[in-house]
Amino acid sequence: xxxxxxxxxxxxxxxxxxxxxxxxxxxxxxxxxxxxxxxxxxxxxxxxxxxxxxxxxxxxxxxxxxxxxxxxxxxxxxxxxxxxxxxxxxxxxxxxxxxxxxxxxxxxxxxxxxxxxxxxxxxxxxxxxxxxxxxxxxxxxxxxxxxxxxxxxxxxxxxxxxxxxxxxxxxxxxxxxxxxxxxxxxxxxxxxxxxxxxxxxxxxxxxxxxxxxxxxxxxxxxxxxxxxxxxxxxxxxxxxxxxxxxxxxxxxxxxxxxxxxxxxxxxxxxxxxxxxxxxxxxxxxxxxxxxxxxxxxxxxxxxxxxxxxxxxxxxxxxxxxxxxxxxxxxxxxxxxxxxxxxxxxxxxxxxxxxxxxxxxxxxxxxxxxxxx
Length: 372
Hints:
CATH topology of the domain at 108-140 and 205-253: HSP40/DNAj peptide-binding domain
Helix content: 25-40%
Oligomer: single chain
Number of strands: 15
Mean pLDDT: 81
Structural class: alpha+beta
Strand content: 25-35%
CATH class of the domain at 108-140 and 205-253: Mainly Beta
């Protein structure tokens, strides 16, 4: 298996980076490698690597554990590989020396496994919410045998070797005394039951694979990477145990015009030189409509204007964020002879007036060229 890259290196941030720096780096790289935008063969793998790094570094507890142990799980035991061999783990070690005890009943109800489903939604669907149906493959309790695994009309029998406990005792005489080691019963594989006549539908497992249609409601304001939990929609439990949960991971497609930071929306709008110099009233597209924005005379490129309440609805709370509009003055590349003459006249007049309000800026530039 290939060695994992350092998470800080993946996001291109330092180890003392702030939460905001990590978040901004993630958003930038997620947009760059999103499979819906980047069609390169390795884009999806890089997107997953970036998401994995962000999931760890954005969580303070996981980040602290990663900073201390790196990619090694400290819960795995010595050498990162856990205990293995003849002892079979901590449970069997204590069984050998103290006679076992505390084992789970193999016939007790068991909760089903959780499932994860990744759903890709459009930018505006994440903003305004969406209701849809998804189809997922999952394991459910067999309707024929009702989860027993036995053919209808028959029942599983208690294992004659372990007498239903699911465990076998191995007694050893050692210099330290009589030792008892408990292991999973080899006759019933730890279930405590033997099925002689297996169910023809599930072949004795008590479970079957099915395609299940589920109605999903995505709340307005959900962001990329969010998880929706649907209780009881995971895999079916064993022996009457409850079903697991379904976790839906949201992936939001980038928008060609809008960018999102939390509950705020950002966009760039071009201005002509005349609009920026003389002022104007322009139309700005928002998430819901077009609105008028007044551009003051003398507006400089890079200036931000705020449209209050035109952002994303707050996921947990009332109101919504704002939209921030950054204006960019566009320099024309193709001019007619008449336009060139007019600009030369303007330049001449501007020179005579000392560049107007921007004279101090031009003075600073001249001093810099003179080395002052």
